[in-house]
Amino acid sequence: MSKSAQNTSPKSISTGRLFLVLQAFRPKTLSAAIVPVLLGSAASYMLFNEFKNVVFWCALFGALFIQIGTNLVNDAADFLKGADRDDRKGPRRLTQSGSYSPNFVLGMGTVAFIIAMLFGIPLVQEGGWPIVVVGLVSVLMGYLYTMGPFPLAYIGLGDFFVVIFFGVVAVATTMFLHSGIWSPEGVFLGLQMGFLSTTLIAINNLRDIHEDSRVGKKTMAVRLGIAGARWEIALVTYLPYALCAYWLIPHYGHVAVLPFFALFVGVPLVNKIFITEPSPEYNRLLAQASIHTLVFCMLLILGFVFI
User: Fold this and answer.
1) How many domains does the chain have?
2) Does residue 13 have a pLDDT over 50?
3) C or N terminus of the chain, fewer CB within 10 Å?
């Protein structure tokens, strides 16, 4: 059998499609779902001596599947709206590649949201009706991020959505589920996490600024222009460091200081954004931003260990 025949065998096609499906989950963005749960759980244990295994695992997988569902709906929606074309700078998408129809990908996104809600059932038993509201709104916003009559990503509200839902809501709610306390610490940790997560979407939108502008997708990057988008990325990268000052009020010095070691990742990231034109190179910067988020939050958690 020729090499070309081998390369187009059913097994290789199936493997290629499986890789595209996994790629559609957008692994580089999943830290935005995982880290808030880690951060909220660790803070609850260190501040209130409360940690519940069922809360941790259900919150973790619930957040992961909301993120995956949002990414899959985004995959199909961007294709249907013409934002994903063959000349896009990012990785190939499921619908753009022609491997799966938009309806099939939307169906996979719906299944991911349903799985997330199933993981939410034990959380509702722990936290009551407030968790029902938080869960349903989070799933709805994940769908409306790129679908519906006023998709958030297409009107420039995607960044705000990330700060609120992948930051404040995710961290504060996780702390509440463990401890039964809605605390200001949860809000400030959530803001720090939310700004870090927004770095990911801001870099993604700057990479795609020309394609998005062409199809009328008015992301924050399109609204601000390349120069403004670069400053936005710098702002949301460095704001979490400024918010460390809050931890000096309750005399949590280690929590305030240790995260600054993450600047060894954050500063080079911002510098590269300012000297690199929007291009496929930004795919590497997305990975670097994800590492920055993880390092910063792990240092926050380490700070709580020393309280």
Assistant:
1) 1
2) no
3) N
